Amino acid sequence: MMFCLTTVYQIFWDMKMDWDIFDGAKFKFNYNKPRAFSRSFYTFVIFSNLLLRFVWTISLVPPKYLGDDGALHYTFGKRISLYLTPFVAFAEIFRRSTWALLRLEAEQNSRSMAIAGGDMGGGMEMTKMEIGGRQMTGKLENFELSLDGKSDEVVIVELTAYGFAFLLFGFIASVTNGFESHV
């Protein structure tokens, strides 16, 4: 029970504090800050974070158990156990990658607001800023956060491709390990 409460707290912490997605205590999407992705991307990340935070708990279940007959038996079956370990690892890497992506975006927004003096409107007034030892003031025009023109779909496909590559290597390692233990 405490694990579930802690995980739910961590999910809310991710969304409010780490990613700065919600405005105040209302839990409404914060439109006042520039966003690199569409609202549907954030919805996808929120729900995948929610699901994947619980997936890794499967790894806490022992892969084998001692049966009444005194023999070791696979908890999920031998074949499923070979696929489960790399899948759980891929899921956690995918979750942490999306977490880091949104955390970097939130940090960029925070630093941009500090430079702009807090006004993230169209032409942002800048307060004092030191560049090369000189005090600078002025406006920051047409501020836009971008990822080299990559769409949300391209970012998700790249993260998924890296994850599947990791999953493939994990699967090969699991299968190889399974064959070595029977030789």
Polypeptide structure, described:
The structure is a single chain. The protein is of the alpha+beta class and 183 residues long. It has one domain (2-182). Helices cover 57% and strands 15% of the residues. The chain contains four helices and six strands. It has helices at 2-18, 39-55, 78-116, 152-182, and strands at residues 22-23, 28-29, 64-66, 72-74, 123-131, 134-141. A two-stranded antiparallel sheet has the order 1-2. Strand 5 and strand 6 form a beta hairpin. Helix 1 runs antiparallel to helix 2 (39-55) and helix 3 packs antiparallel against helix 4 (152-182). The radius of gyration is 23 Å and the shape is elongated. The two termini are 42 Å apart.
In whole angstroms, the N-to-C terminal distance is: 42 Å
Mean pLDDT: 74
Summarize the helix and strand pattern as letters: HEEHEEHEEH
Number of domains: 1
Count of individual helical segments = 4
How many strand segments?
6
**Residue share in helices?**
55-70%
Radius of gyration: 23 Å
List the uncertain runs. 120-143
Largest sheet strand order = 1-2
Strand content: 5-15%
Structural class: alpha+beta
**Judging from the principal axes of the Cα atoms, what is the shape?**
elongated
**Largest sheet geometry:** 2 strands, antiparallel
Key descriptive features of the protein:
6 strands; alpha+beta; 4 helices; two-stranded antiparallel ribbon; 183 residues; two-stranded antiparallel sheet
